[in-house]
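Ops channel
N.P.: pipeline sanity check, posting one input/output pair.
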């Protein structure tokens, strides 16, 4: 089956699904889109090709757009895939695809890198504030010269003008973080090279 066949089949399934969800018979939809019930039946069952003018009329009658009927069957608009950054010991799931209110982004992060043995030379600062809660494990929040342990169920909120970073303490840790625009750019940038997703 070709990709065109897949899309064609999906459109037919969506037309029938929307019609049934609205509680309409073939006669009901036919009356609203000015097609005969037999034509609609053949369209839904794949025995007739769908013309653009017919698709437009059917979509309008169903209260949908053509785009909604033919949108990609790819699951990328639903499934959130992890981005792994092996160099930083971090895997990120972007839970909000677009910036939310006030430009904030929500992300889950799995941190495996232990804290560095030496000072704060690698820490980064940016305008704003960051917030996170620890889902599992223990996170070391490196905040200037301070090393603050944040354990499962605890949260932290701090000024990001202080040089900072996150590390795992005694094994992997997972956090749920809320980052403003600068925090997203600093902490959630895509990895420099593609790497296989972390299966754990």
């Amino acid at each position: 089956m070709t990709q065109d066949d897949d899309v064609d089949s999906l459109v037919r399934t969506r037309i029938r699904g929307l019609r049934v969800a609205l509680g309409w018979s073939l006669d009901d939809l036919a009356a609203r889109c000015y097609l005969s019930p037999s034509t609609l039946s053949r369209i839904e069952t794949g025995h007739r090709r769908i013309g653009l003018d017919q698709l437009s009329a059917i979509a309008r009658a169903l209260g949908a757009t053509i785009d909604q009927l033919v949108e990609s069957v790819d699951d990328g608009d639903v499934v959130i895939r992890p981005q792994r950054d092996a160099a930083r010991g971090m895997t990120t799931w972007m839970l909000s695809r677009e910036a939310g209110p006030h430009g904030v982004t929500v992300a889950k992060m799995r941190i495996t890198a232990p804290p560095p043995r030496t000072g704060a030379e690698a820490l980064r600062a940016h305008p704003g504030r960051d917030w996170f809660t620890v889902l599992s494990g223990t996170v070391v929040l490196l905040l200037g010269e301070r090393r603050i342990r944040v354990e499962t169920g605890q949260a932290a909120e701090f000024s990001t003008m202080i040089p900072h970073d996150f590390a795992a303490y005694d094994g992997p840790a997972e956090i749920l973080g809320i980052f403003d625009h600068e925090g997203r750019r600093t902490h959630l940038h895509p990895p420099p090279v593609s790497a296989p997703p972390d299966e754990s």
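N.P.: looks fine end to end. Residues 159 and 195 are 32 Å apart (CA to CA).
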